[in-house]
């Protein structure tokens, strides 16, 4: 039986306490993350937003076991990030679609399944299901360069979902796309999230994107990278783009902007 949303919301997926990460560089230590406390529950859509260099990507990479913290604790699905990575607990979507140009879209999406040793039939079924989920059916035999930037990013989301992880980590996936495409993908991502009940952690620079997508918004500030504010988004989960014109939306956006201003240095 599928867990009910209420039970689901109670289960913690990511637990971070007093976490820090200092990079030792030739120019001295860089305090990329300091004193981070954050819990993310199942089914949440949490955005990290903040000025360049505040540690958004580093925090996402720590969750994904691509960086190791130098202090504090973190668990993902009750495991260390390393164990969670081996257990394939999450799918990761990068800023650039990073598809292999010599493989068709279907072959790109099948790649993680191939590596995991799924049968050809299983691969085909999962590729079909995930291509449908991101609205790309019909493009199986195309190569990445035959698709627009937005379609390539949808393919990379389908690839991240191919092995059905409960957790999706997304690092500015739509940052390089124009506004209209981005709006469309934001809507599609929200529908996909509602349909699949995934937990999503999403890095962005865009206030409207963060407010439109998220159930919670984490505002970070730099030097050292730390959490400035965590905003519960009161907007209903079922929202369309026109919600961006409402007073509630603008109120949340205003609070995010205030947080960004407070942590921003114009010398950057
Ligand atoms: N491998 C590394 N070695 C040394 N310093 C690093 C490394 N990775 C990141 N940093 C530094 O850590 C800080 C946080 O970087 P990070 O990329 O996480 O910020 P960000 O908020 O994602 O920035 P942006 O919005 O520009 O992507 C920056 O000062 C960055 O230069």
From TrEMBL:
The keyword Transport applies. It holds the Pfam family ABC_tran. Keywords: ATP-binding, Nucleotide-binding, Transport. This is ABC transporter ATP-binding protein. Belongs to the ABC transporter superfamily. CDD domains: ABC_NrtD_SsuB_transporters. GO terms for molecular function: ATP binding; ATP hydrolysis activity. PROSITE patterns: ABC_TRANSPORTER_1, ABC_TRANSPORTER_2. It comes from Stappia taiwanensis. PANTHER family: ALIPHATIC SULFONATES IMPORT ATP-BINDING PROTEIN SSUB, TAURINE IMPORT ATP-BINDING PROTEIN-RELATED. Residues 11-247 form the ABC transporter domain.
